[in-house]
Write a structure and sequence with these properties.
Length: 466
Amino acid sequence: MAIKKIAIGGISTECSSYSPLHQNKDDFTCIRGQELLDLVGFPFLEHGISPLPLFFNKSVPGGPIEKQYFDQIKDQFISEINSLGKLDGILLLMHGAMYVEGINDPEGEWMGSVRKAVGPECIISVSYDLHGQITDKIINNIDAFAAFKTAPHIDVQETYQRSASMLVTAINDNLRPIVLWSSIPVLVSGEMSSTFVEPCKTIYESLDQYNEINGVLDCNLLVGYVWADTERATASSVVTCTNERAGSEVCKKIAKAYWSSRKDLKSDMKTGSIFEALAWLKSEFSIIADSGDNPTAGGVGDRADVLEAFLEHRIDHSLFAGIASKTAYEELKKGDSFNLGGTYGGGGPELKLKADSVYFKNQCAIVKISKTTIIISKLRRPFHYLKDFHELDINLDDFKILVVKSGYLSPELQSLSTPSFMALTEGSVNQNLVGIENKYRNKKIYPFEDFDDYLPLVSNGKSKVT
Ligand SMILES: [Zn+2]
């Protein structure tokens, strides 16, 4: 028997429609070849399947993707698929929260084009972020689906492997799974729906139990992405199954569980304004998350609101990690005066500053102004790992306060077990949800509207399923 062939690839980013910073090819890194196979880490050959890596393009979340770039990269993906000849399957690695002006459903367009290219027989298995969006068009074009079950995400490769495993089984056992979904009219931030705290902890744990039901393969809850004002924005339950009736039952149960918990969705961190954050400051080492400008959720990462407040109130021994500003980085290469704030388009106060000392490492300028240290990064980037500080020769023990551009803290920062506070700051990913612009979203979504009459409807992408 001829060896079966599958392709692997996709595109992953999260786009705030509130960000002024458009994404194009310069924002994406491209993973190809063996590196892409290693990223998935699934032993396809042991199952008699030859995996053919295409490309996986990934960016730090940001603003809308330029339509020209989206069209071009999608066309390139399709032409690479076409160059492989007949495929038995494809593993699509997607995030699910792209926003492209003029395209209602970019992932739906992507998957629709893939389906057209590979034909109706080819099995399409998808891996997704739980902050992704689902539509009938997406579901109608795919055969298997698995999304992350942790946020912060610590099961990325496991999720790729769940999708890979369903793909391999479908090809080798000659079966065609069904994907069902149900929209849930709830949209909250990732910070309010961490899977490590209730109510989501219990709901996500229940997904593994539902997977044990006969005829059910893989159960998912997607909280969706709140900072894109689009028609398709919603939370959803998604179930891959071989028995439509069993799958539909579970899909409704997951949807109901999330809906019933909606009023318990709250941030597990202490929250408040910048000034409440200043009043909260502890004598021991503590962390403040500047959440409205968090680049890993789609914020720009260049705002200086918190820095301005700290400098005004002369709060010493603080470390800002970091503020993105290519222009400030270049000014500091020439002298000690520099301007900070809003230089990438994120807005907020503009500060004229003078460095007492500065050194450069890893495309960052590490600036000292009196007893405040600021990491100015040339590029937009998070500081989520302890190695990010070590690499810049920064010892956190030298500081009393760390200010990061973040929502909920990354697992490594959380592991410091230090008091933390989420400042509800301005920016493209403002956590004050009821205040954000809401022109295109379905208005009947909690918390934008509070209502009680919701009954989950299940769809297979083509029609309603009972
Ligand atoms: Zn996510």
